[in-house]
Here is the input.
Amino acid sequence: MKIRILCVAGARPNFMKLAPLVAALDRDPDFLPFIVHTGQHYDDQMSGQFFRDLGMPAPKCNLNVGSGSQAQQTAEIMRRFEPVILEEKPDAVLVVGDVNSTMACALVAKKLQIRVIHIEAGLRSFDREMPEEINRVVTDAISDLLLVTEESGSRNLKAEGVPASRVFLVGNLMIDSLRANMNSAKQSDVLSRLGAKPRAYGLVTLHRPSNVDDPSHLAEIMETLAIIAGELPLYLPIHPRTRARLEEHHVAVHPHIELTEPLGYFDFLWLMSNSSVVLTDSGGIQEETTVLGVPCLTMRDNTERPATIEEGTNILAGTRKASILDAWSQLQQKPKQGRIPKYWDGGASARCVEVLRAYFAGGGSAR
Ligand code: UD1
Here is the structure.
């Protein structure tokens, strides 16, 4: 009998982490993985396009929860996920990352006494104003098996009292996807479509509620980006949340900041690989730039991914005009070099499969 693993996909950053793992489990005769999509992200540009680019199997079902407040979205995912578990009776539910779908599905599974496997466990920003931090802490507290991307994750879980027998450093699945798809990304025509010259532009992403929901703060960030755009043209593939806020509050966008629709995976990878700097408030992009060797200014006050700063090309730039411009001028004087953290090597999915095999061979329990 194959071990049936229900893999939860919810929002854009989940997809590139799941793709290589679902493929590796699928190739293995011991496992039968299948995907349940919560529908947290639902636009083709935010979801369907990534399934196609990444060659992922279609979800077995889609809960179509859509958008809502934190509580509405989380509650709706839980309500709709429970009957799926009762029907499918999987051997384990596997959740990735830190989005609302991650926590909601972990809670439902655990209360039905289904094992929970958390991929990208242990990351901590220590900022409980971030919805993602709550999702991380809750998911890790109830997970049976915790697979970690970087050493800080193991340290944080130890400090929280999680037994070491449940925690495994496997590396970074997002980097498996990056490495596996670089050749396809090279075929992208995104540079010519946008008229961008390699190393002669910066790439910006911006979507955190703390940066975009408050109109005066959003205006301050856009004003700061406008100053930078005076020196280096910027491309900003725009997240639907940010587009909505810019329009709602009539925030001005400098003519040297080119807004584009959200890009597909190959286009984004290629645009990022050829940029001279990335300015972002994303989590995963801090990791991808570290592997690509592209300097990254993170427009946040903290990061749950300290390896990208300690070892990689990432610099915390804060979220105010003065701090971002300060980091920008530092970078002009001395571009940050870095090295690639342990196990961010394309082999994370194979390590995950071996951890899962050993776990189920031992009866599926870890003390
Ligand atoms: C979510 C995650 C965040 C992750 C981000 C990546 C949580 C708490 N947040 O934030 O960690 O970094 O995804 O994108 O889980 N919208 C669309 N189309 C879509 C999806 C969203 O138009 O396909 C719009 C809706 O107006 C929605 C807004 O974007 O209200 C925000 O979407 P939501 O899923 O609530 O949060 P994100 O900001 O995307």
